[in-house]
Amino acid sequence: MSSINRQFVLASRPAGFPQESNFNLIETPIPALKEGEFLVREHYLSLDPYMRGRMNDAKSYAAPVQIGEVMTGGAVGEVLESNHPDFKPGDFATGQFGWQEFAVTDGKGVRKVDPNLAPISTAVGVLGMPGLTAYFGLLDVCDPKPGETVLVSGAAGAVGTLVGQIAKIKGCRTIGIAGVDDKVKYLTEDLGFDAAFNYKTDTNYFARLRELCPNGIDCYFDNVGGEITDAALRLLNLHARVSICGQISQYNLEKPELGPRLLGLLIVTRSKIQGFLVSDYAPRFSEGLQQMAEWIKSGKLKYHENIVEGFENMPRAFIGMLRGENTGKQLVKAV
Amino acid sequence: MSSINRQFVLASRPAGFPQESNFNLIETPIPALKEGEFLVREHYLSLDPYMRGRMNDAKSYAAPVQIGEVMTGGAVGEVLESNHPDFKPGDFATGQFGWQEFAVTDGKGVRKVDPNLAPISTAVGVLGMPGLTAYFGLLDVCDPKPGETVLVSGAAGAVGTLVGQIAKIKGCRTIGIAGVDDKVKYLTEDLGFDAAFNYKTDTNYFARLRELCPNGIDCYFDNVGGEITDAALRLLNLHARVSICGQISQYNLEKPELGPRLLGLLIVTRSKIQGFLVSDYAPRFSEGLQQMAEWIKSGKLKYHENIVEGFENMPRAFIGMLRGENTGKQLVKAV
Questions:
Q1: Of the residues A15, A186, A270, B334, which has the fewest C-beta atoms closer than 10 A?
Q2: Quick check: A2 pLDDT over 70?
Q3: Could you tell me which residues are beta bridge partners of residue B198?
Q4: Which helix (H) or strand (E) is B51 found in, with range?
Q5: Band of the pLDDT at A62, cuts 50, 70, 90?
Q6: Exposure pattern of A70-79 as b/e (b: 16+ CB <10 Å)?
Q7: Where in chain B is the domain with CATH 3.90.180.10?
Q8: pLDDT higher than 80, residue B2
Q9: How confident is the model at residue B60 (pLDDT cuts 50, 70, 90)?
Q10: Are B194 and B175 in contact (CB under 8 A)?
Q11: Interface contact A275-B276, CB threshold 8 A
């Protein structure tokens, strides 16, 4: 085993859209394990929109990554050495291991993964954070009822693809918004969305949504924000529920954007808008994972992984994900 | 009894702030009662911000008032004649009787008022729609807990004065925002608000709110919207609840206003923003009225009425209310 670890550290904070130069690839020795620690070789590294927020020096729900610090991120890998009673060499585990090839951890927030149940990559996807985000963000925040209309923005991403399928499982009419024609096709032809459109070519969002949601919108699962959300909120039905999962349209703006004031609409429709974080549902994770695994097994839930090979391609894959180049879960395969 | 009814009808739709010329005072004969109808002489007419919305030709939760139609509005008065089994001459009753001196009604949505329990004017105030709005909008939508910080915008109005006092009864730190120094003084010295400020003279809302809410904001009861709400949302605590009751800052704009996009904040704090209408709580009105009456009786809840004499002064009193000239409930006394 190599005793050298390759890591991506934050080199500088982006102004607007991140560049590869915002990251530095460095080599450091793997530290010796202390009592209670174990060493993981990361196989699949997860790339997620929330990481963009960690690159800013702004107060949020988690601390920013500091300049020179290893980028934060989830991954799944194999335990190589262990001074920890619960993790043995040969075990697979997932946790916030960071953008590096090897991680030393004390096991806090780390979960064992059974490679016989599902491919280990799913531990950072459909059977991990994005899957749980879709599950709780839709079912707990929106509570969709059969026959209701559910709209999903960022519908072709790791979370959106799952939200739409869960909505279908619950008997809803499901509409997706994505930014590539092939994604739109994938949503309707492969995942069973009732309709979808490409927001980059079909830019009269209100007209398009009114056409695709003739009975209005009961639940809106928002990954995107901005003008798409402006249009969606104007079509909310009485007692509609809006789940704010992400606002990716806003993350890379150099200057905050202005938009129409829409809170008055909430009075007219007696609707709610609620932000959530999957981590708040930690006590219910096992319920969510069990249900998602069951749906996968019974063929009701499909997932797609967009895998880039090579640890050194982390920044490029991250930027591609922010640009919407992926369909489904964006991963980097390091091993 | 006069057989002539004076009525204010909508003469034209306002562009921006309403003018007295948007209303016409007309005289019409009082129609003869049909079977099941009764005649009410309106004593106190209610003036409320929502009426501004009814003057627009826009889809909302209620139909717009048509040009030439009597303005909509609540009132309380005495039954003069009746062909209705449940209402007798001499009874007092409250309902959506409109801007007129006499109303003929079939009793739908009309409630009898006991003049021995409280002054009849309270039936359109603290023991009527504004009281119930404060009660359910705060307790049901925000569900404030002892020790939490509750912020109220439009705090010196019919609803706001009650919201702040109910929050105090529930053991909260209560902060009010109003637009006149005397109102600010009234809130803190007479109604027991912990702090308040004048948004017209103290215009750095964020700095002022941060100072007055050192522990952040757990519940925000919003009657106003606009820049005040922009600032308040930036100070929300984890799992904060925002109740959107009104957005009076936006009702008289000739052109919709733009504002910062703030939905991303809801993710950081996992907060919700919910619009509501008091009418949705109709099945629980008696619970609310009983509790409000009890608090008044025990001296825990005070109310203030701003009474303008003379039916002919309805438009002027309405415009004054929109300008924030009233403290507490704005009424016109017609008899």
A1: A15
A2: no
A3: B178
A4: helix B50-54
A5: confident
A6: bbbbbbbbbb
A7: 4-125+304-333
A8: no
A9: confident
A10: yes
A11: no
The CATH architecture to which B4-125+304-333 belongs is Alpha-Beta Complex (3.90)
Q: What whole-number distance in Å separates Cα of residue B30 and Cα of residue B36?
A: 16
Identify the H or E element spanning B314: helix B314-323
Question: A279 to chain B: which residues are within 8 Å by CB?
Answer: none
* A129-279 placed in CATH 3.40.50.720: yes
Count of CB pairs separated by less than 8 Å, A with B? 115
Q: pLDDT tens digits, residue range A294-334?
A: 999 999 999 999 999 999 999 999 999 999 999 999 999 99
Do residues B106 and B90 lie in contact, with contact meaning Cβ atoms separated by under 8 Å?
Answer: no
Look at A261 and B256 and tell me if their CB atoms are within 8 Å.
Answer: yes
Mutate to test the interface with A, among B261, B265, B270 (most CBs of A within 10 A): B261
Distance between CA atoms of residues B308 and B326, nearest Å: 10
Task: Fold for A4-124+303-333, please state it.
Answer: Quinone Oxidoreductase; Chain A, domain 1 (3.90.180)
Give span(s): CATH 3.90.180.10, chain A. Answer: 4-124+303-333
| Residue of B233, B265, B267 best to disrupt the A interface, most CBs of A under 10 A | B267
Report the C-alpha gap between A186 and A179 in whole angstroms.
12
Contact B261 A226 (CB under 8 A): yes
Average pLDDT over residues A204-228: 98
In this complex, do B246 and A259 lie within 8 Å of one another by their Cβ atoms?
no
pLDDT tens string B145-181: 999 999 999 999 999 999 999 999 999 999 999 999 9
What average pLDDT does range A195-218 have in this prediction?
Answer: 98
